[in-house]
Automatic annotation (TrEMBL):
<feature type="short sequence motif" description="HXTX 1">
    <location>
        <begin position="53"/>
        <end position="56"/>
    </location>
</feature>
<feature type="short sequence motif" description="HXTX 2">
    <location>
        <begin position="139"/>
        <end position="142"/>
    </location>
</feature>
<keyword id="KW-0378">Hydrolase</keyword>
<dbReference type="GO" id="GO:0008664">
    <property type="term" value="F:RNA 2',3'-cyclic 3'-phosphodiesterase activity"/>
</dbReference>
<comment type="function">
    <text>Hydrolyzes RNA 2',3'-cyclic phosphodiester to an RNA 2'-phosphomonoester.</text>
</comment>
<dbReference type="Pfam" id="PF13563">
    <property type="entry name" value="2_5_RNA_ligase2"/>
</dbReference>
<feature type="active site" description="Proton donor">
    <location>
        <position position="53"/>
    </location>
</feature>
<dbReference type="GO" id="GO:0004113">
    <property type="term" value="F:2',3'-cyclic-nucleotide 3'-phosphodiesterase activity"/>
</dbReference>
<keyword id="KW-0436">Ligase</keyword>
<dbReference type="InterPro" id="IPR004175">
    <property type="entry name" value="RNA_CPDase"/>
</dbReference>
<protein>
    <recommendedName>
        <fullName>RNA 2',3'-cyclic phosphodiesterase</fullName>
        <ecNumber>3.1.4.58</ecNumber>
    </recommendedName>
</protein>
<dbReference type="GO" id="GO:0016874">
    <property type="term" value="F:ligase activity"/>
</dbReference>
<dbReference type="InterPro" id="IPR009097">
    <property type="entry name" value="Cyclic_Pdiesterase"/>
</dbReference>
<comment type="similarity">
    <text>Belongs to the 2H phosphoesterase superfamily. ThpR family.</text>
</comment>
<feature type="active site" description="Proton acceptor">
    <location>
        <position position="139"/>
    </location>
</feature>
Length: 196
């Protein structure tokens, strides 16, 4: 069962973000890297294989009307850029109160930052929603609340991956719960195809 939220007088809202959906072979590779991480971890919450994705921009809670507008924004962006190559890079982390968010970074790719900028500009132009344009660090989250084993604190966590793949889509995801489990469900997915 999919969880929904009611805002105000029975208006349904969705928690959404814009990202790039990954193919199964990329998810399987990330799952392998995640298993390496698990072997060096005391505890943590690990990303479900089906939830692996590359975030472009978090949006937050939106109404059905805003979802309609975001779909138009994403369609416009998809027509302004062609598919491009990406490559997994080193592991990175964000520290939160002694616990870590562990992720796989991506090699510098100008087209990815161009796509990110297009998303920001299109949403800002077409909606009244203020999008915070923080410094973009492209990454794919492997786990949250990670506590590493003592012997892993000062060693290389993962073997470096040179895995290449192609970014072919832009996707509006809903962040929700299905049968009590976190799930990122595609609301709209558009292939990248420059028509300018």
């Amino acid at each position: 069962m999919v969880a929904t939220k009611e805002a105000g007088q029975g208006v349904r809202t969705m928690r959404v973000f814009v990202g790039i959906a990954l193919k199964e072979k990329e998810k399987e590779k990330l799952f392998q890297l995640q298993n390496q991480l698990k072997q060096k971890t005391e505890k943590g919450r690990f990303t479900d294989l089906n939830n692996f994705h590359l975030t472009l921009q978090f949006i937050g809670e939106v109404s059905s009307e805003e979802v309609r507008q975001l779909k138009e924004n994403i369609t416009m962006v998809s027509k302004k850029i062609d598919p491009f190559d990406l490559q997994f890079d080193q592991m990175g982390q964000f520290d939160k109160k002694g616990k870590k968010v562990m992720w796989i970074g991506l090699k510098m790719q100008p087209a990815l930052f161009q796509l990110h900028d297009l998303v920001i500009k299109e949403i800002a132009k077409q909606t009244n929603r203020l999008i915070e344009n923080k410094s973009y660090i492209p990454h794919i989250t492997l786990g949250r609340g990670i506590v590493l084993k003592e012997e892993a604190q000062h060693t290389k966590i993962l073997e470096q991956s040179a895995h290449h793949f192609t970014a072919e889509n832009i996707t509006l995801f809903e962040s929700t719960r299905v049968n009590g489990r976190l799930a990122y469900l595609p609301v709209l997915q558009k292939d990248l195809q420059n028509q300018l």
